[in-house]
Predict the structure.
Amino acid sequence: MNEVVPASVPVDGLLSVAWLVIVLPLAGAALLLLGGRRTDRWGHLLATGTVVAAFAVALACTLALTERAGRTVSLDLFTFIDTGNLDVTAGLLFDPLSAVFALLITGVGALIHVYSIGYMAHDPGRRRFFAYLNLFVAAMLLLVLGNSYVALYVGWEGVGLASYLLIAFWHTRPAAATAAKKAFLMNRVGDVGLALAIFLMFAQLGTTSYAGVFGSVGLLAGGTVTAIGLLLLLGACGKSGQFPLQAWLPDAMEGPTPVSALIHAATMVTAGVYLIARSAPVYDATPTARTVVLAVGAVTLLIGAIAGCAHDDIKKVLAYSTVSQIGYMFLAVGLGPVGYAAAIAHLLAHGFFKAGLFLGAGSVMHAMDDSVDMRRFGGLARKLPITFVTFGLGYLALIGFPFLSGWWTKDAIIEVALDRGGWSGWVLGGVAVLGAGLTAFYMTRLMLMTFFGRPRWEEGVHPHEAPASMTAPMVLLAFGSVAAGFLLVAAFPLSGWLEPVFGEPEEAAHLVSPLVVSIVVTVVVALGALTAWLFVGRREVPTTAPARVSPVVTAARRGLYADTINESLVMRPGVWLTRALVWLDARGVDGAVNGAAAALGGGSARLGRAQTGFVRSYALGILGGAVLVAGALVAVTA
Amino acid sequence: MTDVPWLVLMIVVPAVGAAVVAALPAAREALARQLALAVSLLVLLLAVLTTVAFDPGGERFQLTTSVAWIPDFGVDFALGVDGIALSMLLLIGVLVPVVVGASWRDTPLPRPGRPARSMTAFWAWLLLLESLMVGVFAATDVFLFYVFFEAMLVPMYFLIGSFGGENRQYAAVKFFLYSLLGGLVMLASVIGLYVVSNSQLGEGTFAFDALRQLEIDPNVQKLLFAGFFLAFAIKAPLVPFHTWLPDSGAEAPIGGAVLLVGVLDKVGTFGFLRYCLPLFPDASRDLAPWVLVLAVAGIIYAALLAVGQSDMKRLVSYTSIAHFGFIALGIFAFTTEAATGAVLYMVNHGIATGLLFIVVGMVIARGGSRQIRDYGGLAAKAPLLAGVFLLAGLASLALPGTNSFVSEFLVLIGAFPTRPVFTIIATVGIVLAALYVLLMYQRVMHGPPRGVLLVDEDGAGDHDPADHGAGDHGAGGGATAVPERGAGGATAVLEAPARARVLAVRDLSGREIAVVTPLVALILVLGVYPQPLIDLVSPAVEATMSDIGVDPGGSTPAAPGSTGTGGTD
């Protein structure tokens, strides 16, 4: 209705079927779920095929997009809801931002599908697994390709469902079932924020489409925009595992490892960054909300890094690392226009190396009879050479080894943080540098405990390298870990590609020379790695975690007490309240009703006998009531 | 086609069917249920044809029939539907055959010392109920509406009281008296309306269209409103008038529970829209904040209670009370979007909660217990059953992609501009909805096999699952307590003893798949493409909005730049 459609040029050719990107994996999921056991034999191949095909379509659409002026295409598909003033059209927005996400999701998604063919080869539920994985890809694509907040919300909850199904994939394990429920619930808390933001947009602007909202957000009062920004942030925190809603993400590692790689590292958990980057026009109008975004990012960055230092479960360490790295991205988007492109670049690079790291962890688990305890690993470098090399490259990329991906993208964020200037710039920059050192510590510790040192394997474990269907995706992602940063920052700057979304990249006047930043960061990273070697590398790793440790280590082991806080502030009072209400409803409300009924029935305790008295008294009551009403009417109208 | 009295047919066909079935000898149970299925499918066909004959862009009330009934009091047998009523007739048309299929193998609980009851009566009451439900939505004469409203209680009373669980008598009587009380108070208001029309028009009438034109003194409006409101607030229970529903929902046979919560209770919310708002616009506006307090309190209160339930059928009943809160919020927010959402909610809730009740019934049919703690790990044994259970649950928590999302979203986004505070509180309810659905799903479906899935090989432990339902809620699943598992004489135990083995549980049978498929399909289709349904109900919703003086164009958003959210609360 009140929408400003940016792309007035009619959409033709390939871009007019961009919806295929979503429909292909969705059809795969539907076919596998409805087809039942008939599809057991080839279902996984079909599912992989749909994602590869979706990647091909996404790539072709992106190439077609480069030809178009403005590099933005809006595609209306059908009327979803149209009543009163509300007009929600199901439509897609294909622009540089959604294009890079579509490529990341389908590209990394396709690799992880291939990997899962090997990883899940002997699982009786393989077909179900691939169906859910396809469902996830479809929902995630809808999330990033929708052209309105409602479409985003539909995809947003869709990925939440897929995440729930996949965390609980081995649902006979109570821990997996509980982790899935926890993830869904904490996400729903965030969803309340997202939903309220959408309601507020509609109430104030009469529209929920990106074009409509961004076109008139400038007319809104400051307080309203800040409210919208903070509500969106709440949603983003839920989905991306950011403070204070971060506690679900480490538990989500109960899901199969390919799920951790795709959903809980590379794509879904970065949806919050997408939401904030996509809503750039909103945040540009509210410095207050933006400051909260970067504060959340800085706090989470440290929480994740500290907790990552103390865990012995290889997947939990990687999960806390993800929490921490997404903190970097939040910090960057919170810095505003100078940070958007840096955040997206780090997001893409992180998608490659963290997915690679998780697949490597899966390969290690595959070799170690599904064990995740790093204290029972050790000396795996020679047994798993491909895993070691690819994982090692991902490790170097993550800690920011010079000229690998993380070095380019993380340093860019640290620079932007320092450029903010003033005391806050120094604090944020300092936090980011400290985080880099901690990252080097926990990742080096992980490397040393897993691949180096004396084997501490359980009896009967015979490590062996994974099949080619698993190692091939690891190798490809390793290439990405090495080169993505250089390609996205130096060779083909992402900021230029994203210009139609975020505007002209600013050439910031650096307060601190990038060279100095780079040297300082590299030194801190080296110190972190060295500390890890001093603590772990040069002495024997005990096979059980030491019990007598400092309060700091205990706090880190318990994720800085996030679960404790949630349980004592929300869960236990909730249980208490629920029990009290159940009692109240039975004794109080219903008791009052039954008591009144008994009194009406002449004090009879037995309902059977009360019944006759009842009906009579009601008949009397109704007679009296009718007389009363009629009398009142006569009195009033007379 | 418009000359065919479709609405009369929709009332007469199931009534005649009920009479024929009732006349069958008690031994002809198989024939009775076949007849019931045939008749209900015929009514579904009639509902579809009625919809084809209906013109969404035409007159407000269509397919009208009017015959003088009690001329002395101006009572007419007047029928007619608008889009809202028609959508409810479609819901009835779909749900009754599904309920027949779901109840296909039900048998009544044995009665000590007396021969088992024949199911023939069950099918007859079911068809009679269908006829009366059509009547209550199709009536355009307020007195006729009242007659159907009260008559509807009788078949439901017998469905619960004769075919329900252990505590069926208590539940049935409570249901009956509660509803009767509301109905009688409403009768006082109906008579009051007649008196007013007599003094204003010179001739008393019960015709809805005539009554709508009355100019009633605001204070009188409040009195009359209160009578209607109490009846409707009991029927679509708003807290604190709700306590009869968990008992009835838990004790009713599954088929009865589906129709009770899916259709019967909607008469209450339908009544708000059809009678309270247009007839008493001033009173509705004045009293709306109080209604909204009840609605929103119910959303949170009933959801918390649902979280705390140990009986699956009670749990689903409490979720419905929370959902009725959303519907009431949509109606009394006075915007086109929210009211459209409320109407869609009435349809979608019937489908989604209907499916949830049916699936819960299928679980109970396998385990013989309503208690959540008697189950665990069912998903590994019956994946299809678990999948449908989850889908019904997701629809209940209004996940996007399911039909309920559209209605809940419309209610909330439509109510926000006029009632931001109430809407914010209601939105918190979506977290609680996720909690009660996923808690129940996890406990019943996930984890290692336990409860009724385990048998002690020695048969030593004799923990009959029914024993665990101690307390006042009973345990047997009522008419659905026929275990479909092939456990000859094996006893179920709660904790896994050393020698326990996991029992085979049948996944969905062909009949059960046929029963759930239409509802599953509707949940998904209406979740992705709801606009045809919106187009069907919109004109009637807009007419209702103009009756209370709201611009039917919709909630006008505050001008951009204004600081407030245009709220009045």
